[in-house]
Write a structure and sequence with these properties.
single chain; 170 residues; mainly alpha; two-stranded antiparallel ribbon; 3 helices
Length: 170
C-alpha cells in the first residue's frame, strides 16, 4: 500500500487504513533490515575466516622466523668454529691460513645472502599483513557506517510519531 492509497474518512484518513499502511511499512523495513543483518553477518564471517587464515599464516611465519634464527645462530657458531680452525691453521702454515680464510668468507657470504633473502621475504609478508589489516579496518569502518545508517533509518524512529498521533485520535 502507498500513501496515495490511504482511505479518507470524514475527518481525515481512516485509522484502519493508517494502521495497515504502518504495518506494511514496518514489515518492509524489517525485511530490509533482516537482509542487511544477513549481509553484515556474512561479511563478518568472511572477516573471521580471513583473520583465522592470517593468524595461521602468522603462526607459520613465526615458525619460519624461529628456524631462521636457529640457522643464524648455527651460522654464527660455524663462523666461530671457522675462526678457531683458522687460528690453528695459522700455526701450521701461512698458505693454509689464507685458504681457510677464503673458505670462511665464502661460507659467510653465502649464509648472509641467505639471511638477507629471508629478511626480505619476512618484510614482504609483514607488508602484506599490514595491507590486509588496513583493508579489514576499512571494511569494518564501512560496515559500521552502514549499520549506523540503517539504525538511523529504522522504522522505529518513525513509528513513535504515528503512535503519538494515534493516542490523540483515541
Amino acid at each position: 500500500m502507498r500513501v496515495e492509497e490511504l482511505k479518507r474518512g470524514l475527518w481525515g484518513y481512516q485509522k484502519q487504513s493508517i494502521f495497515q499502511y504502518i504495518a506494511e511499512q514496518e514489515e518492509a523495513f524489517s525485511r530490509k533490515l533482516l537482509e542487511k543483518d544477513q549481509q553484515a553477518e556474512a561479511a563478518a564471517q568472511l572477516a573471521r575466516e580471513r583473520i583465522q587464515a592470517l593468524e595461521a599464516e602468522v603462526t607459520a611465519l613465526r615458525g619460519q622466523l624461529g628456524e631462521l634464527q636457529r640457522r643464524h645462530a648455527h651460522i654464527a657458531d660455524t663462523l666461530l668454529d671457522a675462526r678457531a680452525a683458522a687460528e690453528e691453521m695459522k700455526a701450521e702454515s701461512r698458505a693454509q691460513e689464507e685458504a681457510a680464510r677464503e673458505a670462511v668468507r665464502q661460507t659467510l657470504d653465502g649464509a648472509m645472502g641467505e639471511v638477507a633473502g629471508y629478511r626480505e621475504r619476512i618484510a614482504g609478508l609483514r607488508r602484506a599483513i599490514e595491507r590486509t589489516l588496513r583493508d579489514m579496518d576499512s571494511q569494518t569502518a564501512q560496515l559500521e557506517e552502514e549499520a549506523e545508517a540503517l539504525e538511523a533509518s529504522s522504522p522505529a524512529n518513525y513509528l513513535n510519531f504515528f503512535q503519538e498521533g494515534a493516542g490523540e485520535d483515541a
